[in-house]
Amino acid sequence: MDALELRFGQYVLLATAVGDGKQAVTPVAMLATLRQHCGVVPSEVVIEGACPPHDLWLTFSTEEKCSAVLLSSMKIKCCRRWIQFSRWCRMVRAQPGALKYKSKLGFEGLPNQAWTTASVTDVLQQLGGELIEILPPASRRELEVMAWLRDPSFVGKVVTVEIPEPKLVEIRKPKLTNKPPDSMDEYEAMQFELGDYGPSSPRKKNSLLYPVICHMKEVVDRGPLLAEGLPDEWLPAEGKDLTRKRIFKTVLGKIDGTDGAEGV
Fold first, then answer.
1. Closest CA to 171 of 155, 152, 191
2. InterPro entries attached here (predicted)?
3. Which fold has domain 2-87?
4. For 44, how many CA atoms within 13 A lie in the half-sphere containing its CB?
């Protein structure tokens, strides 16, 4: 992705038609305008539609030609509208976000065939998180992971995990071995050899749905104190590290917060 972003930044311009004109700016009209004012020939640029608020996406064959067209921003008109050019950057149409909470979670009942980095990553994405690492499992009952979360309160106490079924034509008998895998990487490599996952039929994609208890075990909170009206002597000094680790008591087989599985 880094290489792709670098290429976009060097060779791509976004064109925006400025003004209240009702006439849409088309790739054909833009190419004619660039040819007239900037000397750009069809072999030097590919022009495509872009997502609003931009109108067109221009990919140039050379960085020099891209930079030359950029200098003509708001100096030329196309379809009777001034054209503003800007370089592509990954912040286009985006707003800043962050995964602020480093958390330790336990997935109880996660199907064993999903104990892989790819599957756990998919589950965490559904919960608004990103995987840091999979911790060595103590048993086949629960898989613990460290993850960044956007909002721990968004994570459900029971989640439904959907696992796609493998193609029937590619199911093979697993190789028998007496030696268990020594690491998660070795386990993933073994699973990869057992079959390729893909469409089960031309009409639908078969899958299995598993109810999984999600235990929230630890949350590192670096956010500001939310309590209001505290006496001054209770308030932290300016610049003080407000990092707080919250550890929660969990019980296997119990949903967090019930039957003794309360936070501490």
1. 191
2. Sex_diff_modulator (IPR053253)
3. Alpha-Beta Plaits (3.30.70)
4. 16
Backbone angles phi, psi at 69, to 5 degrees: -70, -35
Tokens of 250: 């969990």
Q: Provide the residue ranges of all domains of the chain, joining segments of one domain with +.
A: 2-87, 101-247
Per-residue pLDDT tens over the stretch 196-207: 445 445 677 888
Phi, psi dihedrals of residue 106, rounded to the nearest 5°: -125, 125
Q: Could you tell me the CA-to-CA distances from 22 to 18, 32, 79, 84 in Å, in that order?
A: 11, 19, 9, 17
Beta-bridge partner residues of 130: 148
In this predicted model, which residue has the larger pLDDT, 260 or 165?
165
Residue of 134, 124, 135 lying closest to 99 (CA atoms):
124
- Identify the CA nearest to 132 among candidates 118, 146, 120: 146
| Residue whose pair of structure tokens reads 């959907």 in the numeric block | 162
Q: Which of left, alpha, beta for 260 (phi over 0: left; psi -120 to 50: alpha)?
A: left
Location of structure tokens 């480093």: 102
Which runs of consecutive H residues, i.e. helices, occur in the chain? 2-11, 27-38, 63-70, 117-126, 184-193
86-136 pLDDT tens trace: 999 988 888 888 888 999 999 999 888 888 898 899 889 888 899 999 999
Q: Could you tell me the pLDDT band of residue 262, with boundaries at 50, 70 and 90? A: very low
